[in-house]
Amino acid sequence: MNMANPDTTSPETSLDTRFALARALAQEAGAMALDYFNRRDTLVIETKRDMQDVVSIADRNVEKMIRERVAAMLPEDGFLGEEFGHTEGASGYTWVVDPIDGTAPFVNGMPTWCVSIAVVHGGEPVIGVIGAPCQNELYAAALGRGAKLNGRVLTLDPTRTMQNALTGIGANSHVTPEVVSDIVNRLLQAGGNFIRNGSGALMLAYVAAGRLVGYYEPYMHAWDCLAGYCLVKEAGGWYHPFPVEGEGLTKGAPVVAAGPGARADIGKLAGVC
Ligand code: IPD
Ligand code: CA
Ligand code: CA
């Protein structure tokens, strides 16, 4: 494919063009973010909603690069990024990007952060690419094309359950400590156990890879979850739909995903089924 002059005439070509671009951008963005990570002592760390909600020039410049590349190649596409917000498009495709998910681990020198790139079309995420440069891992999925980790097909094992595997959870200051402790309490009471690595997007990729059996966070944004959702679905798992139409795209909502053996238990934990 000619990346400088994409042919987007048929729906299939449109998806494949964007999937190739998303994979290339996740790798380029990952390398850029990794360079910042390796010299993080020089970054000025700012706070947003609260002292735990951090950001630096790394987040902004990585998003800028991805935005500029998409606008140059596909100027009709919409774009939503965590740092610079929403630009409406006219093609029916919207890119939803978290330039660095796991900024807290990133600025504190831990490797569990990633670049998360989704493309939404027809009310659902049709592309999900997550790059985790510290592990040299690229997770990539597109609707009907399966999910892969570094080129290896991901297929979820139905024998893994909430009881015999680990469940990822996450929380931020949008929810009260009581809500979070209740989730932990009910997960443990149900015979499960929790893990949190500071990146919801990466933990969703871990669900797709079968490393975690599910993920639940009561309030997250589209840029945190849509790429992971596409990966989980294409690996044979389930997710609770995120409201991507209209204003829903920029607002927060519960994020819930699971492998086939834990769907009922994780859905019950999250109160969504
Ligand atoms: C955060 C991470 C974290 C989750 C938060 C998110 P950020 O994103 O995904 O794991 O618990 O809700 O906001 O700030 O690192 O991009
Ligand atoms: Ca995020
Ligand atoms: Ca982020």
SSE layout:
Elements: H1 11-38, E1 46-47, E2 54-55, H2 57-73, E3 78-81, E4 85-87, E5 94-101, H3 103-107, E6 114-121, E7 124-132, E8 137-142, E9 147-149, E10 152-153, E11 167-169, H4 177-189, E12 194-195, H5 200-208, E13 214-220, H6 222-234, E14 238-239, E15 253-258, H7 263-270
Parallel strand pairs: 3-5, 11-12, 11-13
Antiparallel strand pairs: 1-2, 3-4, 5-6, 6-7, 7-8, 8-9, 9-10, 13-15, 14-15
Helix pairs in contact: 1-2, 5-6
Bound molecules: D-MYO-inositol-1-phosphate and calcium ion (2 copies).
D-MYO-inositol-1-phosphate binds next to β5, α3, α5 and β13.
State the main characteristics.
273 residues, alpha+beta, Fructose-1,6-Bisphosphatase, Chain A, domain 1, D-Maltodextrin-Binding Protein, domain 2, five-stranded mixed beta sheet, 25% strand, binds D-MYO-inositol-1-phosphate, binds calcium ion
Output the strand order for the largest sheet: 4-3-5-6-7-8-9-10
Main sheet properties: 8 strands, mixed
| Domain tally | 2
User: pLDDT below 50 for ≥5 consecutive residues: which ranges?
Assistant: none
Number of helices: 7
Residues in β-strands, percent:
15-25%
- In N-to-C order, the SSE pattern is HEEHEEEHEEEEEEHEHEHEEH
Distance between the first and last residues' Cα: 43 Å
What does the overall shape look like? globular
**Main CATH class of the largest domain:** Alpha Beta
Percentage of residues in helical conformation: 25-40%
CATH superfamily of the largest domain: Fructose-1,6-Bisphosphatase, subunit A, domain 1
In the CATH hierarchy, the third-tier topology of the largest domain is known as Fructose-1,6-Bisphosphatase, Chain A, domain 1
The hetero molecules present are: D-MYO-inositol-1-phosphate, calcium ion
Mean pLDDT: 94
Computed over alpha carbons, the radius of gyration is: 18 Å
- Content-based structural category: alpha+beta
Number of strands: 15
CATH architecture of the largest domain: 2-Layer Sandwich
